[in-house]
User: What shape does this take?
Amino acid sequence: MALPARLIAALGRHPDDITEGDLRRAVENQIPEGVDLDWKQDFYEGTDAGKKELAKDVSAMANTVGGLVVIGVDDGNRDHAHDLAPVEPVEGRGEEWIRSVLANWIQPVVPNVGVRRLDSSDQEGRLYWLISVPPSPQAPHAVAAPGNDYHFRVHVRNGTTTRTLAESEIAQRYRDRFHAISDDIDRLHQVADAGFGYLNNYLATEVPAGGTLAPHYPVWVTLAAVPAVRGNYPLTTQQERVAAFDRFYKLASAGATTNMQPDHPILVGRRQLRFQGIPTGQLHQDGCFYGALPIHVSGDRRQPEGPELLYQRGLELDLLNQVQAAAAWASETGATGDIMLSAALHRFDGNDQPLRLAVSEDAFQRGPVGALPATPAQTTADLAAITTDKQEAVVTAYALVSDLLADMGAHQPHLLTPEGNIDLAKLDSSWRAKLTGW
Assistant: This one.
């Protein structure tokens, strides 16, 4: 989770790793509250007023720069950590209650809020709550009682306090949100266009037998991805690129298969690293991603004069691999929020004849005939969900594959399901052996 660097520097570590000893040092050092840090002595009341206060604190941080709410540290009315004051647990008001309040009292819901219980070792039976709030690309977030959508307030952090925005300020926040979405779309096009040009140049490479690589790998599936809240992974030196390459290689091993693991050598790009072969791709410093894998296309032995066959099984699994790899890289750079993805099919050998879909190389079943889609398939997903839950990655890949196949006349994917599963019964033993973690 991307949180303000000042906050992490002040506390000495990321909120996910803070101990009671760190809180004690915060008291000793009298670490002050700020736009990104709020010390609270008491837990929130279970009344509507208490729920509103919780929603107000969290939404205000999301609307500003993000930050951390710590329950169980007294500020002594001095706006700095004054004393440890772990609270007694309240039955029915734990993590689930906190998340329920945030879901019901904030519109839209603040994504990727972290809720962590920290038990006190000094005072047995007491605890602290740490609520970490990333800056939100969906701001402004408004606070309103459930069922009262017409009476809401938008809050921001103002130093050590929280204030309510005026109507004109709210309007500007909405303009900023729509402008950010437009910027994301522009960035997605930039990443896709740059990646396509890079792939096209690679396939124009001459081979010793004569000609280029394109006829050997004519059809490719590509994925461009842009996170809403960009990350920052240094890629300006060879040492940094080597370290990032090695890390991405390990991340790619956790995909549906290992097809997204790149080959050496590591190639240079401005604030990015590049790799060629199978796969080909670009990893950007800000968490953006472009990946490409060749899709198996062959003649139809049963109908030699008919259209070539494009196999769905490889397409679906390889696009799932790319979704997982894109999300893993974005998260590695510290990106958060949603991730916008664009998938496309390209042919590079100059053959523009329609292809016939076939579910797999060994299946008797043949599908419809259609040209490759002229426009990419696009979707937006929760980055954290894809990264932590492989079924969410399947759901995202399913949406992209469905749109690409629909343009070619197919009703639905063959292997991927809308519930987030891979239909293993449709895979033979050799393919099942290739799957990692399924």
User: Anything to note?
Assistant: Residues 167-203 form the longest helix (37 residues). DSSP finds ten helices and 21 strands in the chain. The chain has a mean pLDDT of 90.
